[in-house]
Amino acid sequence: MTRINLMTYPIRSKICGITSPQDALHAANLGADAIGLVFYEASPRCVTIEQSQAIVSVLPAFVSVVALFVNAQPSWIEHILEKVPVDILQFHGDESDDFCRQFHRPFIKAVRVASSQDIQAASLQFPHAKALLLDAYHPHLYGGTGKAFDWHLLQQNPPSRSWILAGGLTPENIAQALTITQAKAVDVSGGVEVSKGVKDVDKMKRFLETVDLHFKFKKDFQ
């Protein structure tokens, strides 16, 4: 059997918390593989249906649209799916695997990481998730804290399934994060903003360029 070296595939990047068509287009043109739309009213990055429709309308082909929810009612999620072309669902609340899979869409489940046990438990609890999104733990917030968890936990006890690195990533620390974790996919929001919900083009550019350079460096030295 031929073994596949995953480092031969580029590191995937998602820019989350997009609130305008301009930011979405900048992210796509800079090389983001996906953009995230937040449908959680408590978030400063929450978008309306009208906003999200305008955002999706400017995206080029092959850029995925991820819709983020936190403990939302199924009827609200279904309403969004009827109105907005969404490729992947992302759940940040206390949803179960059965809840997440009822919408018959690929889904990502966010995990607030305080210890390696949190990662392993989620791997078992969400067998139908396309990937786990590993974020920093906060006792009261479901994400968007701007904080990183201890990346060395992933060296000690890596997840047994596909995963995405998130939480406190910035253009300044993404190279270190990738070196420590060997992540194959990353998710950034506040780390590439000028203010909450408004992306900084230069920060997005530097972030995505660093991810690309890290992949090329690793590939060249294999």
Overall average residue pLDDT: 90
- By secondary-structure content and strand pairing, the structural class works out as alpha/beta
How much helical structure, as a percent, in the residues? Answer: 25-40%
Determine the CATH topology.
TIM Barrel
- Number of helical segments? 8
The N- to C-terminal Cα distance equals: 20 Å
Tell me which CATH architecture applies here. Answer: Alpha-Beta Barrel
Number of domains: 1
Nearest-angstrom radius of gyration? 17 Å
| CATH class group | Alpha Beta
Detail the poorly predicted runs: none
CATH superfamily: Aldolase class I
For the sheet with most strands, the description reads: 8 strands, parallel
The strand count comes to: 10
Strands of the widest sheet, in order across it, are: 7-6-5-4-3-2-1-8
Q: Could you tell me the strand content as a percent range? A: 15-25%
Shape: globular
Helices and strands, in order, run as EHEHEHEHEHEHEHEEEH
List the helices and strands and how they pair.
Blueprint: E1 12-15, H1 21-29, E2 34-38, H2 49-57, E3 64-69, H3 74-83, E4 88-91, H4 97-101, E5 107-113, H5 116-125, E6 131-136, H6 153-156, E7 163-165, H7 174-181, E8 185-188, E9 193-195, E10 198-199, H8 201-220
Parallel strand pairs: 1-2, 1-8, 2-3, 3-4, 4-5, 5-6, 6-7
Antiparallel strand pairs: 9-10
Helix pairs in contact: 1-2, 7-8
